[in-house]
Specification:
CATH topology of the largest domain: Rossmann fold
CATH superfamily of the largest domain: von Willebrand factor, type A domain
CATH architecture of the largest domain: 3-Layer(aba) Sandwich
Organism: Seriola lalandi dorsalis
Domain VWA7 N-terminal: 1-180
Keywords: Glycoprotein, Secreted, Signal
Strand order of the largest sheet: 3-2-1-4-5-6
Order of helices and strands: HHHHHEHEEHHEHEHEHHEEEEEEE
Helix content: 25-40%
Largest sheet: 6 strands, mixed
Domain Hemicentin/VWA7 galactose-binding: 372-456
CATH class of the largest domain: Alpha Beta
Number of domains: 3
Subcellular location: Secreted
Length: 456
């Protein structure tokens, strides 16, 4: 894994097998798995330049054969001494002259449990027991030291170029869109709607339909266009899950939804959400529309585990039905939905059915590329507290969401303040709907340290 002890064939095998796995995972939309494998592969690739004598041999370009299994690894320093003894451990270059002249490739031997090694270079450093066995010293360039500045810098440059070379190989195989999704840059990958279709949900379904239409129509052809749409209706029973990359098909499918049945409140909300989390790709944006608590609350821990493993964001739009609700002893509450939203980095928005069209602006805000969360905090019970955060010049379209009850707040930038009573102030515009305060900062924001004092 680190190209120690002249394990060149094995190290190259890890890289090339990893590249095959990355490309296969991208084809299957397993972007999280692809990204994790990429991290491991890049670590091994970069270690080659730090742990071998590639740059000591005068090379400045990457060793292309490391990512090409069809090419041989040539001129390896097999069965020959490679280093002279360095008693101080800080010799500028302890590679033997004949190894340098013949351009033979070697790497340092590493011993965590044993100091035994052949007459070869050591990796070096306090953790390497072989570094005290003749020939002493070490050739790793992991850190910049006074005795290895030039070689360290050369290794960094070669490792950087090699990383770009590997990434370009994957990009050409995957295509630009899937490559960006794998890298976590195209965050508008998938939009998923989990919708309660029981009898009282007619208005909510209409609003969800309008939001889907608006996302499709406003983002079509832009970098924010979702790569896939997923719809999971739940009633009794729940499902099926509908997946499509065709926006017109999603419009057609959501137009078929009708509110019917139900009545044995609560509903199977978490079963529908579980189907979405297991079926949607990692890092999806999932929006749940319901006016009922969950009768399958026993699934709550399972949902939290799925949220953590998939890194998907779940936001709930909870409305209150006009019909009288019967609570069963085994049912959850809207607080459970708030817990799940916090666990995922999403929102739990509670509004009347009449207010729902104003609340769904959140969906348009978050279905965008390059979305970042600067700060998220949850407190229960509420209290008065000040939360600092830093905004830099790279951020645009900044929105603050506060959900809770009996909220007052003061937002302060490096120069001025604005309170919750100012709907349109020096810092931004405040929209209040249900339990949500949505603050859109003005475009001419100030960079630096901001803070928001909240009392709830």
């Amino acid at each position: 894994h680190h190209f120690n002890s002249e394990a060149f064939l094995q190290g190259r095998g890890l890289i090339t097998e990893g590249m095959v796995a990355i490309k296969a995972n991208i084809r299957k939309d397993n972007f999280q798995a692809a990204r994790e494998t990429l991290g491991r592969v890049l670590h091994t690739l970069q270690d080659f330049y730090s742990h071998s004598n590639w740059v000591e041999l005068g090379n400045t370009e990457p060793y292309i054969n490391l990512i090409r299994p069809d090419r041989p690894l040539e001129n390896l320093a097999v069965n020959t001494a490679t280093c002279r003894d360095c008693a101080s451990g800080t010799c500028p270059n302890s590679i033997l002259p004949n190894i340098l002249n013949e351009k033979k490739l070697t790497s340092g031997y590493m011993g965590i449990y044993s100091s035994t090694k052949p007459k070869k270079c050591s990796h070096g450093g306090a953790a390497d027991l072989t570094s005290t066995t003749v020939p002493r010293g070490g050739i790793n360039k992991d850190e910049r030291r006074s005795d290895n500045v030039a070689f360290h810098n050369a290794a960094v440059n070669a490792a950087t170029a090699a990383s770009l070379q590997l990434l370009e190989d994957i990009r050409l195989a995957a295509g630009d869109n899937d490559f960006l999704r794998m890298m976590g840059i195209a965050r508008s990958s998938v939009v998923c709607f989990v919708i309660d279709t029981t009898g009282s949900m007619s208005d909510d379904i209409d609003e969800a339909r309008e939001v889907v239409y608006e996302i499709i129509d406003s983002k079509k052809g832009t970098q924010d266009e979702p790569s896939e749409y997923i719809l999971v209706p739940f009633n009794d029973p729940f499902g099926p899950m509908i997946r499509t990359t065709d926006p017109d098909k999603m419009k057609k499918e959501i137009s078929k939804l009708k509110a019917q049945g139900g009545g044995d409140i609560p509903e199977l909300c978490l079963s529908g959400l579980q189907l979405a989390l297991t079926g949607a790709p990692a890092s999806s944006h999932i929006f749940v529309f319901t006016d009922a608590t969950a009768k399958d609350i026993a699934l709550k821990d399972t949902i939290v585990a799925l949220i953590r493993s998939t890194k998907s964001t779940v936001s709930f739009f909870m409305t209150t039905a006009s019909r009288r609700r019967r609570r069963s002893l085994g049912a959850g509450s809207f607080e459970d939905y708030k817990d799940l939203a916090v666990a995922s980095g999403g929102q739990a928005i509670q509004v009347s059915k009449r207010q729902l069209p104003q609340a769904t602006d959140v969906i348009l805000d978050t279905s965008t590329s390059a979305l970042v969360t600067v700060l998220q905090r949850a407190r229960n019970p509420g209290k008065q507290e000040t939360f600092p955060f830093v905004l830099d010049e790279s951020l645009q379209n900044i929105t603050i969401y506060i959900t809770g009850t009996s909220i007052t707040f003061t937002l302060t930038n490096p120069a001025v303040s604005q309170s919750n009573t100012e709907a349109s102030g020096k810092l931004g515009t405040v929209q209040t709907v249900g339990n949500l305060r949505r603050i859109r900062l003005n475009a001419e924001k100030q960079t630096g340290r901001w803070q928001i004092n909240i009392k709830s």
